[in-house]
Amino acid sequence: MIPDVPYPQDSPERWRNGLVPVDSLVSDVIRNLDRSGLQIAMVVTADGELIGTVTDGDIRRGLLRGLSLSSPIESVMHRSPLVVSAAITGEALLQLMRVNKLHQLPIVDDKRRVVGLNLWDDLTLPAQHPNPVVIMAGGKGTRLRPHTEHCPKPLLPVGGKPILEHIIERARLEGFSHFILAVHYLGEMIERCFGDGSRLNVRIEYLREQQPLGTAGALGLLSPRPNTAFVVTNGDVLTDVRYGELLDFHTRHGAAATMAVRLHEWQHPFGVVRTQGVDIVGFEEKPISRSHINAGVYVLEPSALDMLRPGEHCDMPNLFARLQDVTARTIAYPMHEPWLDVGRVDDLERARADYQPNTPA
């Protein structure tokens, strides 16, 4: 007989509810599927080795073939199920499940013993991140004048809401709920607009710069310091980058600081002549140059703040250079997602064309 399901639905050990012994009957597994809610039963030996898997569809197809509820489960189970190791996570795991149209994927060790179960619904729900998100929203936006003469750049409307609101909502949908806004120019307008964040179901605090401190300097005002890695983004960057994946990438590589970078291509407007002395050795017709540019989104360890002094001006590239000087690891996160730095009037017009009022951010 199959024992009663012992693990509650919110238990990290819930996957054990889907284990059934190899001598189970079809009726036993039907009862297990009903009780576990996992939509899969993992048929195992006494020492936990995976022999096969069974879904409700497998059972229904077996019954259509003439099997009965008292038939052995081996008569309907899938004997060569796709499995993964615990090392496969993130986008690679989601892609594997997406391509194979799997809603459940067992996790096994090197002896093929079941050690977990990946569930599509759980993987696609955003994890809750306690990590703070610091948004640099203190710049004057001089290149966006006259739009910024009486409105701070992060409050400029795009698609019916401020740029800053797009950034906060994007991160909130990924499970981030603690935001710290660094404000200076017309900062009181930002504070009036967002308050404590309750309107957006998040918590918002403020760093108030008495004078412009650069793209990193305001971080020296953090008090208390974060006790975990935190995300930093410029307040004028609209992007679909996944902050959670950026954070995971940073953690996996053991970095002190991670910078999101984007490939930028630039075509030379003229044919280029390559010379050696006075001799012409080659030609390139309007060559394309490629380089990675700073996307204005970062992850920092709390220890990176040791490189800053309260009230000192510092831009983010300078902070990375200081970390490199003390041999702290700094890495680049190559991003391919849509990205726009709303720094100039034509960028603002492009953003407003892309983000229509009914278009989700």
Present the secondary structure layout:
Blueprint: E1 19-21, H1 26-36, E2 41-44, E3 50-54, H2 56-64, H3 90-100, E4 104-108, E5 114-119, H4 120-124, E6 133-136, E7 157-158, E8 161-162, H5 163-173, E9 178-183, H6 187-194, E10 203-208, H7 214-217, E11 230-234, E12 237-239, H8 243-252, E13 257-267, E14 272-276, E15 279-284, E16 288-300, H9 316-325, E17 330-335, E18 339-341, H10 345-354
Parallel strand pairs: 1-2, 6-9, 6-11, 9-10, 13-17
Antiparallel strand pairs: 2-3, 4-5, 7-8, 11-16, 12-18, 13-16, 14-15
Report what the structure shows.
With 361 residues, the protein is of the alpha/beta class. Helices cover 25% and strands 26% of the residues. The chain has helices at residues 26-36, 56-64, 90-100, 120-124, 163-173, 187-194, 214-217, 243-252, 316-325, 345-354, and strands at 19-21, 41-44, 50-54, 104-108, 114-119, 133-136, 157-158, 161-162, 178-183, 203-208, 230-234, 237-239, 257-267, 272-276, 279-284, 288-300, 330-335, 339-341. The strands form six sheets. Strands 10-9-6-11-16-13-17 form a seven-stranded mixed beta sheet. Strand 2 (41-44) and strand 3 form a beta hairpin.
